[in-house]
């Protein structure tokens, strides 16, 4: 059974017989609402958002993939991401 896990969370080597595979076909798109609430205006949260925006833009993560991608139907930003 496939399991999604952040690689930085696991510092130990994989047990024998386990392999890592990239997640694609379709690629999941993660929503910013998983990180913070839109109405949270604390200075540290605003700084986090600003820094995340800069880092993700430089990395090209604001571009919808040209290959197959997936957003859960209940994602509150699905209509913003979905092709028009």
Describe this entry's structure for a reader.
By secondary structure, this protein is mainly alpha-helical. It has a domain at 32-84. It contains two helices and two strands. The protein has a two-stranded parallel sheet. The protein is extended, with a radius of gyration of 16 Å.
In short:
The protein has 84 residues and is mostly helical. The chain has two helices and two strands. 24% of the residues lie in helices and 5% in strands.
List keywords for this structure.
2 strands, extended
The structure class reads mainly alpha
Shape: extended
What does the oligomeric state look like here?
single chain
Our measurement of the CA-to-CA distance between the termini, rounded to an integer number of angstroms, reads 34 Å
Strand ordering within the main sheet = 1-2
Mean pLDDT: 76
If helices are DSSP runs of H or I spanning 4 or more residues, what is the number of helices? 2
Number of strands: 2
Percent strand equals under 5%
The H/E string reads EHEH
Percent of residues in helices comes to 10-25%
Low-confidence stretches: none
Topology:
Elements lengths: L26 E2 L14 H16 L10 E2 L7 H4 L3
Parallel strand pairs: 1-2
């Amino acid at each position: 059974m496939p399991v999604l896990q952040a690689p930085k969370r696991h510092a130990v080597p994989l047990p024998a017989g386990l392999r890592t595979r990239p997640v694609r076909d379709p690629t999941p798109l993660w929503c910013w609402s998983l990180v913070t609430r839109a109405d949270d205006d604390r200075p540290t949260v605003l700084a986090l958002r600003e820094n995340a925006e800069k880092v993700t833009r430089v990395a090209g993560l604001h571009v919808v993939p040209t290959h197959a991608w997936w957003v859960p139907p209940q994602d509150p930003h699905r209509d913003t991401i979905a092709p028009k």
